[in-house]
Amino acid sequence: MPFRGKLLAAGNAPENARQISGTGKTALVAVGSNQSGALQLADTYNTITTSSASTGVKLPPAEEGNLIFIYNLSGQTLTIYTNETTGVTMNNAVAGSTGVSLGNTKTAICFCPSYNTWAVTCALTST
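User: That's the sequence. What structure does it adopt?
Assistant: Structure tokens below.
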């Protein structure tokens, strides 16, 4: 992932550099008890700081090359879902509507190796 400062130093416009290097959001709130009600993520870097039990987040549409990072500081285990209701899997086995659990103080790296598959690596400790 390119660094924004290096892109700017190379003469890229600020908005272009931001789009290339990725955007981030903090203080996100996980919501919903299933895929349809989960918080839709729109940025590359996401920090969840609030959630109730049994809530979740939803990845962007599965497009080859997508890369999303999630840092869970919510105090709860949350569920990561796909955006699509059918035809997309996580780790080539889990239906997107089932989701993958992400524990408190853990991170997830989510990437799309193909248009219909998210690969999700969870439970990396942050401490």
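Residues 25 and 46 are 5 Å apart (CA to CA).
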